[in-house]
Amino acid sequence: MKKPMHILKADQFDRNFLAYLFELTDNIRRLDKSKEGQMYLQSLLNHKRAMLYFTQPSTRTFMSFQSACHILGIKSLEIRDSSTSSERKGESVEDSLQTFSSYVDLIIMRSPIAGLCDKMAQLLNSTHRPVPIINAGSGPDQHPTQALLDMYTLNRSFRKSGGFKGKTIALVGDLKRGRTVRSLSQLLMQYEGVKLLFVSPEEFKIGADLRTQLAEAPGLSFEETSNFKAAIGAADAIYMTRVQDEYDLSGESKKIDTKEFHLRLEHLPLLKKDCVIMHPFPRRDEIDPRVDQDPRAKYWRQERNGMWTRVALITNILGVDNRIIMPEL
Ligand code: CP
After folding, report:
1. Domain that holds residue 106
2. What is the pLDDT of residue 176?
3. Catalytic site residue 179?
């Protein structure tokens, strides 16, 4: 499987790559079940270093990437606040990124600025040390590795029921500014026979760019609706998301009532027997914590799948995925 230089956007992946990544992730999980397997994984990249440059808040993406590095023996360095770096002294983000590339073999970055990762990848490509960049979330536009772990979770959940074909997936919440929804939708577009229901208040409907891409995707159908109960009743998977009010200009989200788009205990009888309930997290009140006890709630597994999927992705981008071939270890 050809390795990508950088991971920037969800739509850079095709179905073949996804199928390969799912299998690679399964094999890594099998290896991790024994001490010998864990030591083998740790030996694969213990000569490498990675920079985690996260200038926007994160819990699980940061921790799962850091854990993924540790699983593979990679030493990780971090900046989580640009005011603690020489950016505080006026250094440009371009110079900062190029500086990281002097010391490490991989840069994993999260930024509030849409498109910054692409710009930095182009810049590094023109230098003497073009280390790979992984986009760990870029403003409201992309979160490609979240989409990969979401697809891995969906793929595992749909295995016994014939895969993605014929499945209805409801995506709920702030669809306008939710980067996870955009990235996941771009991957789901690759699967014929999938139906997407975009469920939101009028103010949080998907952006025109995504609507155009969806309309052009062959074999996929989609609807936009504000009828939460009907949508969750029809869905094989429900992907809940929070209001992305960090992108508010003046607290405008507070004026929008999202209560009728929250999943509560009383909704559970409406759901299909094998419905998969997901959320990229963090959550606020989109899902009542008591729903966690329902066997259809998969968001805690989804979160852990993020670590395994990121291990697989790093082995691929750093060129050692061909050594994940001995699940019997
Ligand atoms: N899903 C996600 O990106 O979570 P964090 O913001 O905690 O990393």
Report:
1. 10-142+306-325
2. 96
3. no
